[in-house]
Design a protein that fits this description.
By secondary structure, this protein is of the alpha+beta class. The chain has three domains: 17-203, Tetratricopeptide repeat domain (Serine Threonine Protein Phosphatase 5, Tetratricopeptide repeat, Alpha Horseshoe); 225-291; 357-497, Histidine kinase-like ATPase, C-terminal domain (Heat Shock Protein 90). Helix content is 71%, strand content 8%. It has 16 helices and seven strands. β6 and β7 form a beta hairpin. α5 (106-122) runs parallel beside α7 (146-162). The protein is globular. It starts with a helix and ends with a strand.
Length: 498
């Protein structure tokens, strides 16, 4: 009777596991479809449900894939706490599975470390990035998997360059180049070069851009030479084979004639191929020179633009002083002039350190709101814990005032405004200012923090407030961003290190 019960339990467990696995497969397919359609919140929820189903079915490999995707979608929206919790639970489940089966799975630990590295890279925590890279290296060695070893070099190069660790990035990159040459996987190195060029463009780092382009051109020349050498070697082999055929059939005149004809055709093909290669090489050299000239011209224009913006405010002021200061257009022009000067000053002092002091964030936030006359405003909530942070009081206050003023202007009576302060990492905090007003038009979102992107009536605002706030945040080693997923109004996130 006991044996019968045991058999029935095993059958029931098998049916349950099979059902969970089938459900997990379907949820993972739906999650991937949502991700492809850029429905990120829905994709995150479905990946999380698929992960739970695969855990129930004991399908560790698929559980790891879904958990890593879930964590990636969490930290995409700056929910780092939730992302780290998902990966921590996954570590525990993976350890239990390895212990139960007495079989280590370093190949499954590798993507977990890789996802953590991506989060710490986004948080600009160099020490943690190095720690995760070291763990990825251990996992790749233990797995003895060539594709993981190659991916490790690629990830090390990109992460170190992103953190500004040029020497470490170069070391990883050189290893990747050497390995790619050995395996003839030239596309991976090409992809890494393009990523590095994009990083330099986004950071407006002209020296890094020029240096990378120069190395990229040398690499491309080297690859073209290798490929040409292989093609030439193949043709040479055919040529040698033809000579051997001539020697074997030298006894017959007809055979000699056919061989001579074949050699003539082969020589013509070889000459044609070499001629085509010479033309392609010449075109490439001309293109490279044009690119270098374009980079030099762009750098020169950028310097002239910066100098012009720096001086334009001072040039406008004497003329503005002669006009009627009460006229709306004159006020708008004077405000525009002041904003240009402020923007230029911030750009020129981004690398200068700011003085900080220990501040009680609850009292500080309440003071900012009170000074703006928003205390007691209907439908406004403030959720700031009583904690201390080292910040530059003046810079943070200017940013908060601008964001709250915008929220109040664009939020009609009866709608809601909220101010929150959340901890997102060991030394990372986020102010979250949310309103349920008219929101921001889709076509304006991408250029919201870029100055001078549109032409507007200055009496209705010059559009430089948010770019100035973004530069202030950057100068404090922080970041100001718009929550792209929030659609019920506008939600701005001010990330601070303290």
């Amino acid at each position: 009777m006991k044996k019968l019960y045991a058999i029935l339990i095993l059958i029931a467990f098998g049916i349950t596991a099979t059902h969970a696995q089938s459900k997990g497969n379907e949820l993972m397919k739906q999650a991937q479809a949502s991700l492809d359609n850029k429905e990120y919140v829905k994709a995150r929820y479905l990946f999380l449900q698929a992960y739970n189903s695969f855990v129930s079915a004991g399908q560790t490999d698929n559980a790891v894939k879904c958990a890593v995707n879930t964590a990636s979608l969490y930290h995409r929206e700056n929910y780092y706490k939730e992302a780290f919790e998902v990966l921590s639970r996954l570590d525990g489940i993976l350890s239990e599975t390895e212990s139960a089966k007495a079989r280590p799975r370093p190949d499954l630990h590798y993507p977990i470390h890789k996802e953590r590295m991506a989060m710490y890279l986004k948080l600009k925590n160099a020490a943690k990035v190095r720690e995760q890279v070291a763990r990825m290296e251990e996992a790749a060695k233990a797995a003895k998997n060539d594709s993981l070893a190659t991916d490790l070099l690629y990830q090390k190069a990109n992460s170190f360059y992103a953190l500004g660790l040029t020497r470490d990035g170069d070391a990883a990159f050189n290893s990747l180049v050497a390995q790619s040459k050995a395996t003839e996987d030239y596309d991976l190195v090409d992809k890494c070069y393009r990523n590095l060029i994009n990083m330099a463009v986004r950071a407006n780092n002209a020296p890094l851009l020029g240096r990378t382009y120069e190395k990229y051109n040398v690499w491309t020349d080297s690859v073209n030479a290798l490929r040409s050498s292989k093609e030439y070697a193949a043709l040479q082999a055919k040529y040698d084979e033809s000579l051997a055929t001539i020697a074997d059939k030298e006894s017959t005149i007809s055979g000699k004639q056919y061989i001579i004809i074949a050699l003539c055709v082969l020589a013509a093909v070889l000459l044609g191929a070499l001629g085509l290669l010479a033309v392609m090489l010449l075109r490439f050299i001309m293109l490279t020179r044009k690119q270098k000239e374009a980079i030099a011209t762009a750098n020169e224009h950028n310097l002239l633009k910066t100098e012009f913006i720096h001086n334009i405010s001072a040039q406008m002021k004497p003329t503005l002083d002669t006009l009627d200061q009460k006229h709306p257009a004159v006020k708008a022009l004077r405000g525009f002039s002041d904003h240009i000067q402020e923007l230029s000053d911030l750009e020129n002092t981004l690398t200068e350190p700011l003085e900080t002091e220990e501040v009680n964030m609850q009292s500080f936030t309440a003071g900012v709101i009170d000074n703006m006359g928003l205390t007691g405003r209907e439908n406004m909530t403030v959720d700031v814990p009583k904690l201390s942070m080292k910040i530059n009081r003046e810079e943070v206050q200017l940013i908060l005032c601008h964001l709250l003023n915008n929220a109040a202007l664009h939020t009609p009576k009866g709608n809601h405004i909220s101010v929150e302060l959340k901890k997102r990492g060991p030394h990372t905090y986020q102010y979250i200012i949310t309103d349920t007003g008219c929101g921001i038009a889709e076509e304006q979102r991408d250029n919201l923090f870029k100055p001078f992107t549109d032409v507007r009536d200055l009496t209705e605002g010059d559009g430089l407030g948010l770019p100035i706030c973004a530069l202030r945040a950057t100068r404090m080693n922080g970041r100001l961003s718009l929550d792209q997923g929030y659609r019920k109004g506008a939600r701005f996130i001010l990330e601070l290190k303290g």
